[in-house]
Design brief:
The structure is a single chain. By secondary structure, the protein is mainly alpha-helical. It has a domain of about 40 residues. The chain contains four helices and no strands. Helix 3 packs across helix 4. The longest helix has about 35 residues. It is flat. The chain starts with 9 loop residues before the first helix and ends with a helix.
């Protein structure tokens, strides 16, 4: 294989690497455990940066913070789709 790669090949190379990795991985759950923990810890740190709340309360608040984040994203997506539809109807796009 050549080392002179076109920049457009980056996505394909990354996908290839992912398939090679997962083909050789005996336990995907174990391989991604640290990433899942870091993601969960992010929400707990956001709602309790000083780690002063009881664990159950911190987990409850973290779940709400995560849900709020995804609902904000869904709202923005809905607004964008509505605006795009309106623009098409006006003939803007």
């Amino acid at each position: 294989m050549t080392t002179d790669r076109h920049p457009d090949d980056a996505a394909l190379i990354a996908k290839l690497a992912a398939h090679v990795k997962w083909a050789a991985c005996p336990d995907r759950t174990a391989a991604t455990a640290a990433a899942r923990k870091a993601y969960a810890d992010r929400w707990e740190k956001a709602v309790d940066p000083d780690n002063t709340l009881p664990e159950a309360e911190r987990a409850r608040r973290a779940a709400h913070a995560k849900s709020a984040h995804y609902m904000r994203m869904a709202l923005k997506s809905h607004e964008a789709r509505r605006n795009n539809t309106a623009a098409r109807k006006r003939g803007d796009a």
